[in-house]
Specification:
heterodimer; A: alpha/beta; 3 domains; 28% helix; B: 299 residues; alpha/beta; Rossmann fold; two-stranded antiparallel sheet; 10 strands; elongated
Chain lengths: 327, 299
């Protein structure tokens, strides 16, 4: 869509035409027998000579910069590259680079696991003949991606780094809640805070009275809704009442507190799915489809800053030169 | 024909071009009163470059080991006057032959006339009309005079306008002896100081011959309509006037031009001045022959 702006380039003809000099034709060839001709008036001619060449140049550059800014061009400046998903093993990367025969390729550290999305957004920055190697714990896409470049994919699942989740439990049966959290397996470790603090991610409120006003957390599990009467009127989805309050997001549901194993599973699954987010699977070593007609990704805007600066400088120069000329 | 004119235009050396033109003409083009060199022996003179080899006295050379030329007794007092109009309008170039202009053509033909006069033993002089004064070379005989005249012809480029009538009248003191006056000009101005001088000379019973130089483009009125034109001599009045060739202007141009030269020819005829109008693209030999033809039609 942006590249349609290049069709505005004929606008450059306007300053060129404006700067064309209009002058009387005074250049005349000598002719000895001119005295036999009837005299004619001097003719106004537009000649291909330009007045204020500097100003014309500035105005043309200004328009070009403006159109380029709007068109947001992407220059293919990247060659053979190795795209490294964060957390990949360096020895594994080196081996894959050697196997793929790309020892001189430039390494690009991707911002996240969603490598295909990044590639789709930045694909126009690569030369048409660039070879790409994708290494690491690549997130599996929903559908096989279609890209302009052939990509060799060497995925390897990385072990999730151990992390902590801070949970504050306010309940008469705090010990049971703790057991419930301890039953969860996986790399996450649950830390139980006595009082909710800045690091607390979840507050379990299983008390009939209202919580103190300073207590805040991103998510509240309200096991006793008498503490939060407004939750009864809150919207619900799949039996889960949710409400965004100044304290944080409040949840209440039939499975809070869990009465059986299924309710506990539902509770933790909902927490993972709706609040923590799903960790995607590692993509299979499946090469994406190479399709020259695949839709180009959104523009990178890599030149936007430089063009904006150029635009500003040119505009200032144009104003200055115009002003100087008027004086 | 054009090749010959182009050759004349491109020969840098005037004497070479003259030799080329005269070689195509043969001898006896002008019926001089003197019958050539060596009819009646008068004196010996040291050889000068340009003298004919047949006039060198070989016996004397054997004796003295130097070249001497036999000079003849002359009883002729005919002088040939070459008059060149070197005003700015004479710069008008041929639009078909590159490098050829009216001034160069006039130079060549006047040089030819001078060479013929020199061959016949006539005295000849030169008058170049340009600017405020008439540049005058006194009449004399011989090959050195020819060289002098040729170098003088070469020295002047076309510029300015004609000298005033008074200046020209003051320059006519030469014309006491019977003389042939060959005037090469474009005669775009008529009457003019030059035309007055011609008529005055004719009135003094001199043989005045007018050569009016034109170009083929002028005759056909064939000029670029997209250009503006100006008169090279028309700037004296202050602002320069512009002229343009349109369809109507072309017809008007042809009409006025024809009228003007008709008037010039008619005046010349009235004063018994042989008048030859020639495009400069024509072969110089032909034009020369037509110019120097005597009144009876005999060359």
């Amino acid at each position: 869509m942006n590249s349609l702006w290049w069709w505005a380039l004929p606008v450059l003809l306007l300053p060129i035409l404006w700067h064309r000099q209009k002058r009387e034709q005074t250049k005349a060839a000598p002719l000895a027998t001119a005295r036999f001709l009837p005299q004619s008036e001097p003719v106004q001619l537009r000649v291909w000579r330009f007045s204020d060449l500097l100003l014309l140049l500035l105005r043309c550059l200004l328009l070009i910069a403006l159109i380029a800014f709007l068109a947001d061009p992407v220059l293919p400046w990247r060659g053979d590259s190795v795209l490294v998903v964060p957390g990949a093993d360096p020895a594994f990367i080196d081996k894959q680079v050697r196997d793929a025969g790309l020892p001189d390729a430039r390494r690009i550290d991707l911002p996240g696991r969603d490598a295909y999305r990044w590639l789709h957004e930045h694909e126009r920055e690569f030369n048409p003949e660039a070879r790409l190697l994708l290494v690491g714990d690549v997130a599996m896409p929903a559908a096989l991606p279609r890209l302009h470049h052939p990509v060799t994919v060497r995925p390897r699942a990385a072990a999730m780094p151990p992390s902590e989740r801070h949970v504050a439990i306010y309940s008469q049966r705090a010990e049971e809640w703790r057991k419930l959290f301890a039953a969860l397996d996986g790399p996450q470790r649950h830390v139980f805070d006595e009082q909710a603090g800045a690091t607390t991610g979840l507050v379990v409120w299983d008390l009939p009275q209202s919580p103190p006003s300073g207590l805040r957390a991103p998510l509240w599990w309200v096991a006793d809704t008498s503490a939060f009467p407004e939750l009864r009127k809150a919207p619900q989805a799949d039996g889960l009442h949710y409400l965004d309050s100044p304290r944080g997001r409040l949840w209440s549901a039939a499975w809070l507190p869990p009465r059986d194993a299924d309710a506990a599973r539902t509770m933790f699954a909902s927490w993972q799915r709706l609040h923590l987010g799903l960790a995607p699977h590692t993509a299979p070593p499946q090469a994406p489809v190479v399709d020259a007609r695949a839709p180009a990704g959104p523009s990178g805007g890599a030149l936007r800053e430089a063009l904006a600066t150029a635009l500003l400088v040119l505009f200032a120069l144009e104003r200055i030169v115009t002003h100087v000329r008027r004086r | 024909m054009q090749a010959s004119a182009a050759l004349a235009a491109h020969t840098g050396k005037l004497d070479l071009a003259i030799r080329h033109v005269l070689a195509g003409l043969g001898h006896g083009i002008h019926a001089g009163r003197e019958r050539g060199a060596g009819v009646e022996f008068s004196e010996y003179r040291a050889y000068a470059p340009g003298d004919e080899w047949r006039r060198v006295d070989w016996k004397l050379m054997a004796r003295a080991d130097r070249y001497y030329v036999r000079e003849a007794e002359r009883d002729s007092h005919v002088a040939v006057w070459l008059v060149l109009d070197a005003t700015a309008s004479m710069l008008e170039p041929s639009r078909s032959v590159e490098g050829l202009d009216k001034l160069g053509y006039a130079r060549l033909l006047l040089g030819c006339v001078g060479a013929i006069a020199q061959r016949q033993g006539d005295a000849f002089g030169l008058l170049i009309c340009q600017g405020e004064r008439a540049h005058f070379t006194p009449a004399a005989r011989g090959p050195r005079q020819l060289q002098r005249v040729l170098s003088q012809l070469d020295r002047f480029d076309a510029a300015g306008t004609l000298p005033s009538s008074e200046v020209l009248r003051a320059s006519l003191h030469f014309a006491r002896a019977p003389s042939v006056v060959c005037v090469a000009s474009d005669f775009l101005e008529w009457p003019s100081p030059l035309s007055e001088a011609m008529l005055r000379l004719r009135g003094m019973r001199h043989d005045v011959r007018a050569l009016c130089l034109q170009t083929e483009a002028e005759i056909a009125a064939d000029f670029d309509a997209s250009l503006a034109w100006c008169d090279p001599e028309g700037r004296a009045g202050g602002e320069r006037k512009l002229f343009r060739f349109g369809r109507e202007a072309r017809a008007e141009y042809a009409r006025r031009r024809e009228e003007h030269f008709g008037m010039v020819a008619q005046q010349c005829r009235a004063h018994d001045i042989p008048y030859v109008a020639a495009p400069i693209e024509r072969a110089p030999g032909e034009v020369l022959r037509a110019w120097l033809r005597t009144r009876g039609g005999r060359p």
